[in-house]
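To assess whether ligand presence alters the predicted conformation, the chain was also submitted together with zinc ion. Input:
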Amino acid sequence: MSARDICTHWREHPLLKWNDSWPPNEHSDCRRRASEWPKSLPWVAAMRDGEKHTKSAMITVGLAEDTSHTELDQLVRDGRWVCTCGDPRLPPVQDSSWGILISHDVAEQAWYTQHRYSLPIYHRGCPVDEVLSNHSLRSTDACLKLLDPDDEPKYPDYKVEQSVVDEVAAVIAGRDNPPICKICYNMTKDNSRSKSLYLLKDVNVLAHHIKTKHDVQLTKDLIIFQYFRY
Ligand SMILES: [Zn+2]
Ligand SMILES: [Zn+2]
Ligand SMILES: [Zn+2]
Ligand SMILES: [Zn+2]
């Protein structure tokens, strides 16, 4: 991939905003007052360990190492190379790409690692009980899958009844802060509780989190709110 291709590719990422000024400005500049610092929006940079992750993801699902990026994108857009966690934040497969799939997988693994380190020390040995590591590539039931052309992916059934959707929607609409999963919150030690616990103000995303990370159905009592500065 040329540098230009990489830039174009990363700009397809719908969740990111970009720093478009040229020449590139620094994220922070000690010679200037903080109020004069340039915006701290990201510049194009390679995903940390992106190559390593992509390689192990390809090995996990049995893709040949020399499969081209175009072929990988085609597999994703045909709905064959999928993450069967069914994350509602992922775009429809026809709008997706291998890069989106891999960044999703890497983000989920990083979330799990961070979560594990924020558990009280006596819990670290047995985090599996409390949070499912569904994106581990080592697990035999990793949700990253390469399907046969006529296979239908099986997605977790996280949807809740309309009455629950309405209740949760009302609860989150009444608050300024983003919602927090009570199960995650209770597991996290006091001094590790931070903005990283925040989830999206989206009932589907909450229902999906609670089902796929804790194997529990969403109810409004599982959503709490707390303000964190960091
Ligand atoms: Zn996933
Ligand atoms: Zn990408
Ligand atoms: Zn435990
Ligand atoms: Zn949780």
